[in-house]
Write a sequence for this structure.
């Protein structure tokens, strides 16, 4: 069960500002905007990004700073609601210089690099317990391979 105290809206905002600062200091000169996707299930996560510049609007891959995964992990844990759960995917968009938007999804993540190990599904339910009506069918079927 998650022992992390819930984050209030101001604490969530502070973490989003930290994410913004990490990105601003790690993006190349001339950046215009970037998008970072963070997906998590249990202790498995992946953080991917892309950015574009003033002179080149075609997105280029961004190798996200390692601190981003930790910050998104803290945000995810702090947004856990007992018996409801937490999000599986965050999409963070940053526009020059400091304007950001974030959205969260409770849908099954579409893993791009590595799928989570089999135990991550059951781990998710242990760390972030949900009442039965709040457990998505895809999570149940992976957490208990013998279920219908």
């Amino acid at each position: 069960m998650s022992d992390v105290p819930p984050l209030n809206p101001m604490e969530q905002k502070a973490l989003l500002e930290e994410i913004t600062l990490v990105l601003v200091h790690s993006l190349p000169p001339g950046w215009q905007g970037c998008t970072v996707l963070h997906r998590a299930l249990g202790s498995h996560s992946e953080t991917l990004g892309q950015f574009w510049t003033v002179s080149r609007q075609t997105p280029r891959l961004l190798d996200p700073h390692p601190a981003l995964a930790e910050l998104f992990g803290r945000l995810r844990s702090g947004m856990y609601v007992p018996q409801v759960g937490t999000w599986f995917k965050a999409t963070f968009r940053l526009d020059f210089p400091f304007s950001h938007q974030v959205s969260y999804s409770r849908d099954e993540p579409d893993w791009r690099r590595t799928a989570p190990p089999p135990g991550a599904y059951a781990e998710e339910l242990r760390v972030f317990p949900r009442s039965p009506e709040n457990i998505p069918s895809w999570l149940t079927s992976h957490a208990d391979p013998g279920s219908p």
Observations:
- The mean pLDDT is 93.
- DSSP finds four helices and five strands in the chain.
- The radius of gyration is 16 Å.
- Strands lie at 31-41, 44-53, 60-62, 89-95, 99-105.
